[in-house]
Amino acid sequence: MPRKVKIDPVDIKIVRLLSENARLTYKELAEAIGTTRQRISRRMNKLEKMGIVQKYTVIPDYEALGYSHIVLGITLKPGAKLDDVVSILKDKEHVKIIQKALGTHNLVVHVVAPKDMKEIQSIIESITSDIKDIDHLDITFITETCKFQTF
């Protein structure tokens, strides 16, 4: 039987610090937490193997880059196969985040597209045209991200 690895307060501190700045070195993490670089290295390996730390990434300012950030709230018809829809969406170039959801929508899909409205319309149509079981689609344009905190 595989040994279950526990997450402790030091692991939580590491994840919080990295969620604020993923560029921190092991030395900087160790100094912030009051431990050694070697201990941070071992813990980071553990957190990555467990899938707790999945990705180190950049959060771009889409507006400054000349793009629009659009959120699609997709409600599927009863009986639709959610995983089949997710598979279709994963292959779409402009789809950046796909989230399964409970509530009004089955899926929340983040799209990044050039600011031209005709192009946005075309991109949204190309994303949704392959999904046969859409019951309702809400489109929201993100105008400003006031807070983005991962943990």
UniProtKB/TrEMBL annotation:
- Give an example GO cellular component term for this record: cytosol
Its protein name is Transcriptional regulator
Q: What is the phylogenetic placement of the source species in the record?
A: Archaea, Methanobacteriati, Methanobacteriota, Thermococci, Thermococcales
Q: What biological processes does GO assign it? A: response to amino acid
Q: Which GO terms describe its molecular function?
A: sequence-specific DNA binding
Q: Which PROSITE patterns match?
A: HTH_ASNC_2
Q: Which InterPro entries match?
A: ArsR-like_HTH (IPR011991), AsnC-type_HTH_dom (IPR000485), Tscrpt_reg_AsnC-like (IPR019888), WH-like_DNA-bd_sf (IPR036388), WH_DNA-bd_sf (IPR036390)
All residue ranges annotated as the HTH asnC-type domain in the record: 7-68
Q: Kindly state which keywords UniProt assigns to this record, in alphabetical order.
A: DNA-binding, Transcription, Transcription regulation
Which residues, if any, are the signal sequence? Answer: none
UniProt cross-references to Gene3D superfamilies, sorted A to Z: 3.30.70.920, Winged helix-like DNA-binding domain superfamily/Winged helix DNA-binding domain (1.10.10.10)
